[in-house]
Amino acid sequence: QVQLVESGGGLVQAGGSLRLSCAASGRTVSSYAIAWFRQAPGKERELVAALSWSGGSTYYADSVKDRFTLSRDNLKNTVLLQMNSLKPEDTAVYYCAARLNNWSPSRLDYGFWGQGTLVTVSS
User: Fold this and answer.
1) Nearest Cα to 60, choosing from 46, 74, 73?
2) 13: which strand partners?
3) 5: closest CA among 63, 53, 76, 68?
């Protein structure tokens, strides 16, 4: 089992920054890929960024490339999503998810989810 807890969401003006945190706990966290998905009202949940925990492979959606950055703190079992130059279209509930080994683009492949954190970007 892997438990995930997100934090760091909030209200920010366009052009601003936020940093989301995903704290993971479990027996074999080092074997899990961690991904950030987001879901805006009336839209499908989409993959934003992902990190294969042990291999270092990283993915970013085109819509967030050069604005969002993933990093990890192995000692704290935490993955951070630094979000810069935020846009109103980034407004969504952001979810942290985990699966064994490598990341996947499909949300159906992730068996562990956090509760979500709301990011609101005002224009």
Assistant:
1) 46
2) 122
3) 76
DSSP string, 94-113: EEEEEEESS--S-GGG--EE
Cα 32 to Cα 113: distance, rounded to the nearest angstrom: 12
> In the chain, how long is the greatest CA-to-CA distance?
43
CA pair distance 31, 97, nearest whole angstrom: 13
pLDDT for the residue numbered 25: 85
Q: Tokens at residue 106, please?
A: 């499909």
pLDDT in tens, 53-63: 775 788 999 99
Residue spans of beta strands (DSSP E) within 1-123:
2-7, 10-13, 18-26, 32-39, 46-52, 58-60, 68-73, 78-83, 92-100, 112-113, 117-122
